[in-house]
Design a protein that fits this description.
The structure holds two protein chains of two kinds. By secondary structure, chain A is an alpha+beta fold. Chain A has three helices and five strands, in the order βαβαβαββ. In chain A, strand 4 and strand 5 form a beta hairpin. Chain B has a five-stranded mixed beta sheet. The two termini of chain B are about 20 Å apart. Chain B is elongated. Classes of the chains: A alpha+beta, B alpha+beta. Chains A and B meet through strand 1 of A and helix 4 and strand 5 of B. Strand 1 of chain A pairs antiparallel with strand 5 of chain B.
């Protein structure tokens, strides 16, 4: 029987939205406050939803402790209390939350201890969030 | 309708219940190793948040997919009266031989709600159901159960 298991993690990180493809003035126009040269930060909430068959012996789609370990190693150790702009993933990509979301999906999709990655949702603030799934 | 008018409607409720994880087929050591603190046979508890999502088209007269008061009453009757302030392992028949993990709770709640939602909620109204103003064809779409704000499970029926 297929079900989904979801887990929410917090990642506190800084970023600056700026692209060399635009002039300084165009960057300010495009990104507003997010273009502040010194950066700013968020408590991102990363929601990971894993789909799969419920194991008959354990009643679980995926083991919570093993999932935490995988997300810890792949995501939290890498991004929590970091500056996203300095991560190699964002060397030539603006660390918008859209791009952060797809980066997390790509890092996690082959790292799960069980089940399939159904979606990654990244909440930048309480009022905006981004989601991507395997279906694109 | 071509499907573009389909609406997902969700109602939340909270129930407080205790449970523990234990597979009777395993020795105690394996239960403790796999389930950790959740294997404490004295149980522990949560304030579960339940989200019930129903899919349908708004009724042309009332604008409702289903009447929320009716849905609230169904959730109370079918789920909360059985789960709230109860020990799930000891007091609910579906968990006599099934471990009440969050995944299994989501599946069990679906089974409790589906008959009522998909028959009563899908009725066109009238008779004993008059005043509920349910639109035709409303169906249970998704059950989500939060064990804590950071841990949840979801069931969407047989795909």
């Amino acid at each position: 029987m297929k079900a989904y298991f979801g887990r929410r993690y917090m990642v506190s990180a800084s970023h600056r939205l700026n692209t060399e493809a635009l002039t300084a003035e165009e960057n300010r126009a495009a990104y507003g406050k997010c273009n502040n040269a010194h950066g700013h930060g968020h408590n991102y909430v990363v929601e990971v939803l894993v789909g799969g068959a419920v194991d008959a012996e354990t009643g679980m789609v995926v083991d919570l402790v093993a999932l935490d370990k995988a997300v810890g190693e792949r995501i939290l150790d890498r991004f929590d209390h970091a500056n996203l702009n300095l991560d190699p993933l964002f060397a030539d990509r603006v660390p918008t939350t859209e791009n952060f979301c797809t980066a997390i999906f790509a890092l996690l999709c082959d790292a799960l201890p069980g089940g399939e990655l159904e979606h990654v949702r990244v909440e930048e603030t309480e009022n905006n969030f981004f989601e991507c799934s395997a279906r694109g | 309708m071509d499907g573009v008018d389909m609406i997902l409607l969700t109602r939340r409720a909270v129930f407080c219940a205790s449970h523990y994880y234990w597979n009777e087929a395993w020795p105690a050591e394996k239960n403790e190793q796999v389930f950790g603190r959740c294997a404490n046979r004295h149980g522990h508890g949560h304030n579960y948040t339940l989200e019930v999502t129903v899919a349908g088209e708004p009724d042309p007269v009332t604008g409702f997919v289903v009447d929320l008061k009716w849905l609230k009453d169904v959730m109370e009757r079918e789920v909360l009266s059985a789960y709230d302030h109860k020990h799930l392992n000891l007091e609910t028949p579906e968990f006599k031989n099934t471990i009440p993990t969050t995944e299994n709770i989501a599946i069990a709640i679906w089974k409790r709600l589906e008959p009522a939602v998909n028959s009563e909620g899908g009725a066109s109204g009238g008779g004993a159901t008059a005043g509920r103003a349910a639109a035709g064809g409303a169906k249970l779409s998704r059950i989500r159960v939060y064990e804590t704000p950071e841990i949840f499970a979801e069931y969407r029926g047989e795909a």
